[in-house]
Structures are given as structure tokens and as C-alpha cells.
Write a structure and sequence with these properties.
Chain B: Belongs to the PIGH family. Chain B: It comes from Escallonia herrerae. Chain B: Pathway: Glycolipid biosynthesis; glycosylphosphatidylinositol-anchor biosynthesis. The complex is a heterodimer of chains A (398) and B (190). Chain A is an alpha/beta fold and 398 residues long. In chain A, strands 3-4-2-1-5-6-7-8 form an 8-stranded mixed sheet, with helices on both faces. A 4-stranded parallel sheet of chain A has the order 11-10-9-12. The longest helix of chain A has 22 residues. The N terminus and C terminus of chain A are likely disordered. Helices cover 34% and strands 36% of the residues of chain B. Chain B has 3 helices and 9 strands; from the N terminus they run βββααββββββα. By secondary structure, chain B is an alpha+beta fold. The two termini of chain B are 35 Å apart. In chain B, α1 packs antiparallel against α2. The longest helix of chain B has 24 residues. The chains are: A alpha/beta (398), B alpha+beta (190).
Chain lengths: 398, 190
């Protein structure tokens, strides 16, 4: 729906708020009349420090009031604007939904820092959305959110771009495609053991390996050792635009995943295996055996229906509905949730929220809510305005 | 002569005056800043306290207090400057088929005027402006030959309700200039 957003469910209007990019700053209207605020906020050098935390309070408050927002939806991002927006929205009493995309891991410094910030945001969110069941488990464990508050909505796939080949490949030869970074984490070592074994068992199987990485050398060595130069094609790094063409040149796609994207595919479209060479060979055998029954076009149509953006939008609206029906909590109840975040982290979070509340109260004294003008209902597509008779023109602001 | 029509909103008063001249009516729109009595009292009081404090210190200790005194007087000066707008009134005088005059009246009595001929005005637009701390509406003119929009109100930020009648009047004047026969044509899109 939107990044770092606010929206009105009553008339299902959505307003997007984000950082300014280059000279794209101010208010813009996108296709369909989607209004986007590009806030020209330049964070301090260290993006995650406190001075920026409260700096966005005035503009966020102004936007939330003038657009008559009822719910704020933040998407996980490295930008602090999302977390700040959600924090301020909670302080001001709005319902908040957060989508956890789990795009990064846990080991590097940036991720550790971000995880703490995430814990803070998740401590007091009305509803949360995760993109897979594993991600939901992870989120629930990390944040202590009750599982009923977390919804799973997998990302849609760009089914228009990833279409199967028009002509079916011949089944005399079975082509197995591997596209991944050739690193330990992605199972490159396992490939080194699996490929010669499969090639030995099935003389009609060929491999196409796309991707680059430190383990590529080992794969090249394996190729030479077993004389598989004509049966294993090493493509090197594949540019994103070429991925689809590489994938459609094969029958089977082999991949190692950590997150549970595997859980989102139906059983007949995927064969799972333990990260063990023998088990993997068995799984590949199973896949080869299933191959004659597979119809790529039918599969594509099924995926299209399962994972369309319309479906995601419908499910997201259900989450919004649920969030709006949640009862409002008073300040003390909310603050006590922060204290349970950790021994010292909890106290810091608690303090941060208290200061936010005080600053908001001061801001309300300085500029009361009624002084902030509400934007009149305006349909930029049809150029009709509800409150004023006649047209009201609105151009992109400088 | 039409009675001056006034609206008060958001700290500004809008007065619309129509002067029936010998040939055409001259449309005058004034936006006057309302002096917030409570605010003035508070800030005068705080300025006084800022000045009085170091004086008190001066009688207790000496050198440090002098520095404090000067810095605090400076603070008070800035406070006064910052919170009291030097502009008393901004006006838009529309002379149909001739041009638009933008005037800024300062409290000191100085008046700055700018005249834009009617054929140079392509369109009057109402924009939403976003700053790092706030979001407000502005009324501007797209002037032929100029790269940037010409703000009608240089310093004031009147609320939308006050800008719309002025915008409509400007649109009507520019459109009637384009189409001298169609006097009552509505403002249309670009």
C-alpha cells in the first residue's frame, strides 16, 4: 500500500510520506491520484541518533492532522523516518501497522543496531504484518507481541515479468538451473558434491550455474576433476534483467533458502531436501520423475492467482480493519510495554517515549490542533473539489 | 460601492474591497496580520525577565554578570524581532485588462509595490509547500519569462480559506484578459 504512510480507511484514501530524493521534494500526485509527500528532511550524519528522532514530530503531526489520517502503516526500512513516524503516531494516539520484510540478517553491526530499533518499534504496534510464517515466529519471539496481532501476507511476485517460455523445452535432456551467490551460506559446497553425483546417475541431465562468489573456484575445480565441462555451464554473474531468460532455459530450479519462502509454495511445485548431499540427490531424482506431469503455463497461472498484488492489498485491508477496531490504550499501559523490552533498553525506550509525549504536548500548546488546516477533499484525477465551488488546481510544489 | 467583505481566519484578516472606477472595477484584496495580544504580553514579559535577571546578578557578583547581561539583552532583542512580524498588511490590487499590483505594507510605514502586467501572467496557482517542520499553502503567479513562481504573499502564510477567493479573482482577471468576450469564463486547467 504505501511506505511510511498514513491512510483513511473510510474513503480508502492513501497518502504516502517519504524522504525527499534529490530535487524530488514537496507534494506530488501519482497515477490514480495517490498523494505523496516528499519531506525535505536531511538527517544528521549518524542517521539513527536522537536529535533526528524528535525533529520529524512537527511535520508528521501536521501531515497526520491535515490529511485526517486514521491509521499509519510503516514498512521496515533502514531509514529512520519510518520508525520515527510510527513512534510519533503512537504518541499522538493513532493506530499503527508495521510490516516486517526481514530483508537483512543478524550478524553485522548495522543489523544488530537495526534489530534494537525494531524491537522498540514493535513494542507498541497495533498490528504487524510479516512476509512468511518463519518471519512471524521470529518477530513474535523478538518483540513479545501476541501472535494474534501478527498477520502473514507473503509478497506478491511480479508475474508479468516472470513468465514461462512460450514453447516447452524438450524432455530428452533435463536442465537444472542454479542461480545464487556462490558462497557457503547459499550451499555452494553442497553443489560441489551433488552435481557430480547427479550427472553420474542421470546421463541426460545438464546443469546451468549462474552467479558468482568465492566458492566459484571450487565449482570450476569440480568441473575439471569430473570432466563435466560439457554438462555444467558456468554463466558467471547474471544481471537482473537476464534472470528470467536464464530460468526459462531450464526445467528445474535448485536453490538453498534460509527464510521460509519455501513454505509459500504449494507441495506439488516444490521438493524440499535437507542440506545433505544424499538427500538432495534423492530430491532431484524426485523432481526429475515429476517433470513429465508438469505444465509450466498452468503453474504460472496458479502462481499468478496466489500471489497477485490485488490479493495482497485485500489482505492488507483486513489488517487495517482489525487495527482500527482495536481499543485505544492509555499512556501508562503503553509505557509499561516499553519497560519490558530489556533491563537497560527498556528504560531508555521508556524515557524516549516520555520525552516524545512531553514534546507533543508542548507542540499542541504552541500550535493547537484546530490551527492546522485540513486539506479539502480533492480528486486530482477528475479535478473536482468537494469544499469549494469550481476547480481548484494543484501543482507539484517546488 | 460594494461593502468591504471581510473574513478572519488563522491569525489573519482578509478584506475584499471593490472600487467602482470610471471604466472597470478595481478589485483590492488585503490580508492583515492580527496582533495576538496575549502573545505580545507574554513575550514582552519574558524579554523583561531576560533583561532583569542579569541586572540582579550584577548586584551580587560582577564580571561574569556583565557578559551574561549583554548576551541576555541580545537574546531578548532576537526574541522581540522573531516574534513580532514587521509586516502589517499585504495587498493584491487587481486592475482588469491592465495588471496586478502586489503591495507589502510594513509597520514602519514603508510600502513595497510590485506591478505585473496582465499579459505577462500565465496563471495563478495554489500550491502546497512542504518544509522540514511544516506544510502550508501558497498562492503564486506563473509569470512569462520568469523561471520561478512569483509569490503573491511574500511573508504571510494565510490559510487556504483566505487564499481561494483571491485565487479565483486572479483567475477570472487573467482569463478575461485572454478572452475579452467571455467575461465570466471559469478558470480552466492547463
Amino acid at each position: 500500500m504505501n511506505e511510511k504512510k498514513g491512510e483513511r480507511l473510510i474513503v480508502s484514501e492513501v497518502v504516502v510520506m517519504t524522504h525527499a530524493y534529490g530535487n524530488r521534494s514537496g507534494v506530488r500526485y501519482m497515477t490514480g491520484g495517490l498523494k505523496v509527500y516528499y519531506v525535505p528532511w536531511k538527517p544528521f550524519l549518524m542517521q539513527n541518533t536522537l536529535p533526528t528522532f524528535y525533529g520529524t514530530l512537527p511535520i508528521i503531526r501536521t501531515i497526520l492532522i491535515r490529511e485526517k489520517i486514521s491509521l499509519v502503516h510503516g514498512h521496515q526500512a533502514f531509514s529512520t523516518l519510518c520508525h520515527e513516524a510510527l513512534m510519533h503516531a503512537r504518541t499522538m494516539g493513532y493506530k499503527v501497522v508495521f510490516t516486517d520484510h526481514s530483508l537483512y540478517g543478524f550478524s553485522d553491526v548495522g543489523s544488530i543496531h537495526m534489530n534494537k530499533v525494531l524491537q522498540f518499534t514493535l513494542a507498541d504496534v497495533t498490528q504487524a504484518i510479516c512476509v512468511s510464517h518463519t518471519s512471524k515466529e521470529n518477530t513474535v519471539l523478538r518483540s513479545g507481541l501476541p501472535p494474534e496481532k501478527v498477520f502473514v501476507i507473503p509478497n506478491a511476485v511480479d508475474t508479468a515479468m516472470f513468465k514461462p517460455a512460450l514453447e516447452r523445452l524438450s524432455t530428452d535432456e533435463v536442465v537444472i538451473v542454479v542461480i545464487s551467490r556462490l558462497v557457503y551460506r547459499k550451499g555452494a559446497d553442497l553443489l560441489v558434491e551433488v552435481i557430480p553425483e547427479v550427472c553420474r546417475l542421470y546421463p541426460n541431465v545438464r546443469f546451468i550455474v549462474g552467479g558468482d562468489g568465492p566458492k566459484r573456484v571450487r565449482l570450476e575445480e569440480m568441473r575439471e576433476k569430473h570432466s563435466l565441462q560439457d554438462r555444467v555451464d558456468m554463466l558467471g554473474a547474471v544481471p537482473h534483467a537476464k534472470v528470467q531468460s536464464v530460468l526459462i532455459s531450464g526445467h528445474i530450479f535448485l536453490n538453498r533458502v534460509f527464510s521460509s519462502r519455501d513454505q509459500v509454495l504449494p507441495d506439488d511445485m516444490i521438493v524440499l531436501a535437507e542440506p545433505d548431499p544424499a538427500d538432495m540427490v534423492r530430491a532431484i531424482e524426485k523432481a526429475i520423475y515429476r517433470l513429465p506431469q508438469v505444465d509450466p503455463q498452468a503453474m504460472h497461472l496458479r502462481m499468478k492467482n496466489l500471489y497477485s498484488w490485488h490479493d495482497v492489498a485485500k489482505r492488507t485491508e483486513i489488517v487495517y480493519d482489525r487495527a482500527l477496531r482495536c481499543s485505544s490504550q492509555n499512556l501508562l499501559e503503553r509505557l509499561s510495554r516499553y519497560l519490558s523490552c530489556g533491563v537497560w533498553a527498556g528504560k531508555i525506550f521508556f524515557l524516549v517515549m516520555i520525552i516524545d509525549f512531553l514534546l507533543w504536548s508542548l507542540l499542541r500548546l504552541w500550535q493547537p490542533d484546530v490551527d492546522i488546516e485540513v486539506v479539502p477533499d480533492f480528486d486530482p484525477v477528475h479535478r473536482e473539489c468537494g469544499d469549494f465551488s469550481g476547480d481548484m488546481e494543484d501543482k507539484c510544489s517546488q | 460601492m460594494v461593502e468591504p467583505h471581510s473574513i478572519t481566519n488563522g491569525g489573519y484578516t482578509y478584506i475584499h474591497d471593490v472600487d467602482k472606477g470610471p471604466i472597470e472595477a478595481i478589485d483590492t484584496h488585503h490580508v492583515i496580520a492580527r496582533r495576538n495580544a496575549a502573545k505580545s504580553v507574554i513575550f514582552n514579559l519574558s524579554s523583561f525577565i531576560l533583561i532583569a535577571n542579569p541586572l540582579f546578578l550584577f548586584f551580587v557578583k560582577d564580571k561574569l554578570a556583565m557578559a551574561l547581561l549583554w548576551s541576555l539583552i541580545l537574546c531578548a532583542f532576537f526574541v522581540k524581532l522573531f516574534f513580532q512580524k514587521p509586516i502589517e498588511k499585504e495587498s493584491v490590487i487587481i486592475m482588469p485588462a491592465f495588471g496586478v499590483q502586489l503591495e507589502t505594507h510594513y509597520r514602519s510605514g514603508r510600502i513595497i509595490r510590485r506591478f505585473i502586467p496582465i499579459d505577462k501572467i500565465l496563471k495563478a496557482v495554489v500550491n502546497e509547500c512542504v518544509t522540514p517542520v511544516t506544510c502550508y499553502w501558497t498562492l503564486s503567479l506563473i509569470v512569462r519569462g520568469e523561471e520561478e513562481l512569483t509569490l503573491v504573499f511574500k511573508e504571510f502564510r494565510p490559510p487556504l480559506k483566505l487564499l481561494v477567493p483571491i485565487w479565483k479573482a486572479l483567475c477570472a482577471a487573467t482569463d478575461s484578459a485572454d478572452n475579452p468576450d467571455a467575461f465570466t469564463q471559469e478558470g480552466s486547467g492547463s
